[in-house]
Design goal:
Length: 507
C-alpha cells in the first residue's frame, strides 16, 4: 500500500503508479535471458572496410554534409570522476600512507606527466607552502592526494570526468569536453560551418558545464573556423527506478521511498528529444590528443558514410514498396539485403505469401539505423556483438552485456566466451524515416533486456533495477550494422593511471 507521502513522491518525479507496478513486477518475475546463436565475427556479422572502399564512404559523407542536413554529436557525460580516483581515496584511508601498491607507485612516480600537475603544484604551494616534488621528497603523499581530491584543493574527487584536465599541449591543456568539441569540428561540421553537440550531464554539474562551455567556445571556434552549438540535458527523474528489499518490498529510509538512476538506458529519452538527421554517439572519456586523432576521424567518417549509403538504399526500397507493385525478383533482392547487409532474417520468410513478404519488408525497413564501431577485445569489460533471437521470431545483431546470458546454460556460456569483439560505444545513428519524419525511439526498446543488481544504502542491502542499456536493449529493434574499427580509436579513461598511456600523453 502506498502512503500519501509515497504518492506525492511519485508524482514529483513524474512516475505513474502503473509504472511503479511494472517495476515491482520486474523485481518479482525477473528478466528472461536472450537466446543467443553465436558471436558476431569478421565476415559473419562484422564488416571489414577494404582500403579500396574507403574513398567511396568518405566521399559519401562529405557529399551528405554539404546538403541541408542536421548533424548532432551526442555525448553521455553524466559520470562523476570519483570512480577514476578509487585507488587514491583508498590510499587516504591507509594508516601509514606508505607507497607499496603498484597503482600508487606509478601515480607518484610519473605525477609530472599529468595535465593537471601544474594546477596541483600551485595548490600545494598555496596550502602546504611546498610544491608537489618537495612534498614527495618528504614522504607527504597524503597531502598531495588531498590537494588533488578535496574541495579546498582541485576538487577532482567531486568533479565530472568531462571537466578534468586530460591532455597537455605545448601552450595549453584540454578537458574531454574540449576534445569532443575539436572532434566535432573535424568530422561533423555541416555545409554552413556549424557543429552541433549535445552533452547529457548530472543536474549538480550542469551550471559548471555551462560555465566552462561559455569560456571555451570562442577559443575553439576561432581555431577551427566553425560555429559551435552546444546544449545540455539531464537524465529525467521519471526514468529513475524504485529500490526494493530482498523480499521485493519497497525499500525505504526514514519512511521515504528510495530511487536509483535507471542506468544509461534512461538516456534513450534524451536521445529521443534530439532533432537531427544523423547522430554520433560517443562516451565522454574516449578521447585522445590531436596527435592521435587521425584514426578516430577517419573511421568516424567511414562509419557515417556507410550509414548514409545504407540509409539511401533502404529509402529507395521503401519508396518502391509504397509506390509500386514490386516484382518477385525485387522482393527477393530486398530480402537478401535484409539478410546480408542488415543481418535481419526469419527462417519462415521464404514460405510467406507475396503480400506477407511485402508487409515483413516494410516493417524491417521502417526502423532507425545504427552503424557501430567494433574493436577486438583485449580484455576490456563491457558489451559485445552477437546474433540473437528476437521476440518477433526474427534474428538480428545485438550488443549484449554478460549479465544477459544464462551462465547456467553451458552452450550459452560458451558462446559468450567465444566473443572476440568489444563495443567501444562508437555509434552513428539515423533516426528519421524516408519521409523525413523522426522516429519515436521509445517504440524500439526491448523492455525485457533490463537487469537487477544488488546495491546497498546506509549499510542495508537493496535490489536495483537497471533499464535496457542505451546501446543494448534500448536499441534492440534498430537496424544494426557492425564495422571493425582499429583499437587506436578506443582509448577510454576508466582509472586515473590510464592518462599515463602514450595515447593520452601525445607525441
Amino acid at each position: 500500500m502506498l502512503t500519501k507521502e509515497d504518492s506525492e513522491c511519485l508524482a514529483q518525479k513524474g512516475i505513474s503508479v502503473e509504472k511503479l507496478e511494472e517495476q515491482l513486477k520486474r523485481f518479482r518475475d525477473g528478466f528472461p535471458f536472450l537466446k543467443v546463436y553465436r558471436p558476431a565475427v569478421l565476415g559473419d556479422g562484422i564488416i571489414h572496410i577494404e582500403e579500396s572502399d574507403k574513398s567511396f564512404y568518405i566521399d559519401k559523407w562529405a557529399s551528405y554534409l554539404n546538403g541541408k542536413v542536421n548533424i548532432v554529436k551526442f555525448v553521455p557525460a553524466s559520470g562523476a570522476a570519483s570512480r577514476m580516483f578509487k585507488t587514491l581515496f583508498e590510499f587516504l584511508d591507509l594508516d601509514n600512507g606508505v607507497l607499496f601498491r603498484e597503482s600508487d607507485l606509478k601515480f607518484f612516480g610519473e605525477i609530472e606527466k599529468f595535465a593537471f600537475f601544474e594546477g596541483l603544484n600551485d595548490k600545494c604551494i598555496e596550502r602546504e607552502g611546498k610544491g608537489v616534488l618537495d612534498l614527495k621528497k618528504e614522504g607527504r603523499y597524503k597531502a598531495i592526494v588531498t590537494n588533488l581530491l578535496d574541495s579546498k584543493g582541485l576538487n577532482y574527487g567531486m568533479l565530472p570526468k568531462g571537466l578534468l584536465l586530460f591532455h597537455k599541449y605545448q601552450n595549453s591543456f584540454r578537458t574531454p569536453f574540449e576534445e569532443h568539441l575539436v572532434e566535432g569540428a573535424l568530422y561533423a561540421k555541416n555545409g554552413e560551418g556549424v557543429v552541433n553537440l549535445h552533452f547529457t550531464v548530472s543536474p549538480e554539474h550542469l551550471k559548471l558545464f555551462q560555465s566552462i562551455c561559455s569560456l571555451k567556445l570562442e577559443e575553439h571556434s576561432f581555431a577551427y573556423g566553425t560555429k559551435f552549438n552546444v546544449d545540455f540535458s539531464v537524465q529525467k527523474s521519471s526514468t529513475d527506478t524504485v529500490a526494493v528489499d530482498k523480499d521485493n518490498h519497497l525499500f525505504k529510509i526514514n519512511g521515504s521511498l528510495v530511487f536509483r538512476p535507471g542506468g544509461h538506458g534512461a538516456l534513450i529519452e534524451n536521445l529521443n528529444e534530439i532533432e537531427a538527421d544523423v547522430i554520433f554517439i560517443k562516451n565522454i572519456d574516449n578521447v585522445v590528443p590531436d596527435s592521435y586523432k587521425q584514426p578516430t576521424i577517419e573511421y568516424k567518417t567511414l562509419l557515417a558514410g556507410m550509414l548514409v549509403d545504407i540509409q539511401q538504399q533502404i529509402f529507395d526500397y521503401q519508396r518502391l514498396l509504397e509506390e509500386t507493385d514490386p516484382s518477385v525478383e525485387l522482393i527477393n533482392e530486398m530480402l537478401d539485403f535484409c539478410k546480408t547487409k542488415l543481418y535481419v532474417f526469419s527462417d519462415e520468410v521464404d514460405s510467406y505469401s507475396k503480400e506477407r513478404k511485402i508487409a515483413y519488408l516494410k516493417r524491417m525497413f521502417n526502423r532507425p539505423i545504427r552503424v557501430c564501431g567494433m574493436v577486438k577485445n583485449e580484455g576490456e569489460p563491457g558489451g559485445g556483438p552477437f546474433l540473437c533471437m528476437n521476440q518477433d521470431g526474427t534474428r538480428s545483431l545485438q550488443i549484449l552485456e554478460s549479465s544477459q546470458f544464462d551462465k547456467d546454460d553451458e552452450e550459452q556460456h560458451l558462446i559468450l566466451k567465444k566473443s572476440a569483439y568489444f563495443n567501444p560505444v562508437d555509434l552513428v545513428c539515423a533516426v528519421k524515416n524516408y519521409k523525413g519524419e523522426k522516429y519515436d525511439l521509445r517504440k524500439f526498446v526491448d523492455q525485457n533486456t533490463g537487469f537487477i543488481s544488488l546495491k546497498s544504502k546506509d549499510g542495508k542491502e537493496l535490489k536495483a533495477l537497471e533499464l535496457p542499456g542505451l546501446w543494448n536493449g534500448a536499441m534492440s529493434d534498430w537496424n544494426t550494422v557492425f564495422v571493425e574499427v582499429p583499437i587506436e580509436t578506443f582509448n577510454p579513461v576508466k582509472v586515473l593511471n590510464d592518462l599515463l598511456r602514450k595515447e593520452h600523453q601525445g607525441r
